[in-house]
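Project standup — Tuesday

K.O.: blocked on the structure for the chain from last sprint. Re-posting the sequence here as requested.
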Amino acid sequence: MLLELLKSKIHRVRVTGADLNYIGSITIDRSLMAAAQLVEGEKVSIVNINNGERWDTYTIPGPAGSGSITLNGPAARKVQTGDLIIIMAYCHVDATEAASHTPILVFPDEQTNLLK
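H.V.: unblocked you, prediction finished:
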């Protein structure tokens, strides 16, 4: 049996932009993606702390060290620049491995989105 567990989380990162006319996804600073071990195109769940919205999308790497967190396409309607969000990715783990699984938790600076 496989269990779906939290793989990684970028906790309380600030939205820097929203682009309704882009084809979709979330653009994330490449440094944050690396710290959370996220890959381009990976499915992620987003939770908006400011308004309670929750949705799934996929990742696009942004410039490293930029602090960029941009919601693209229809998801742009679920945020405002400045909102705090949580980005989560999940993995499938065999039930015997679940007890030893440890998710990767990233806590960037809430003002700059840069790694502390």
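K.O.: great, moving the ticket to review. Residues 2-92 form a domain with the Barwin-like endoglucanases fold (CATH 2.40.40.20). The chain has a mean pLDDT of 97.
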